[in-house]
Amino acid sequence: MEERNEMATRQSGGVESASSARDQAGGDENVATMAPAVDISENEQGITLRAEMPGVSKDRLEVRADRNGLSIRGDVSIEMPQGMQALYADVQATRYVRSFTLSGELDPERIDAQLKDGVLTLQIPKRAEFQPRRIEVRAG
User: What is the pLDDT of residue 59?
Assistant: First the structure.
């Protein structure tokens, strides 16, 4: 049976942490698996999620979304200088893993993702029917 470790829950904005990094890491012995630190904010248009993933490059980052789920996975490889060989290494790489449950008010088809200076920023918009709109009032 897989152990679930709740990290941080934020249901009012539509994003809830679903599992720990340990749940999704895989079995690599020399890979340190960590859950990236995440900040979540909300405005009228949607949710902004920022995940700190230092050392992860765009080509080693995977963001997946479906109807009600979002997962983030990134790998950092510790490269040895040319001509050198590690005599001993507890950790040869770091893997960031985190997953979230998305509420029905969010539109996973329109997620925008940017990676800059080790911070992954995801803009998750609300579906049009959940965004506030101004109602015109007519006199008469």
Answer: 93
Query: Residue 103's pLDDT is what?
Result: 92
pLDDT tens digits for range 62-88: 999 988 899 999 998 777 788 888 787
For residues 96 and 14, give the distance between their C-alpha atoms in angstroms, rounded to a whole number: 22
Average pLDDT over residues 53-61: 93
**12: helix, coil or strand?**
coil
Q: What is the dihedral of CA 49, 54, 58, 64, to 10 degrees?
A: -40
What strand order describes the sheet that includes 112-116? Answer: 38-42, 46-52, 119-125, 112-116
70 touches 48 (CB < 8 A):
no
Distance CA 38, CA 41 (A): 10
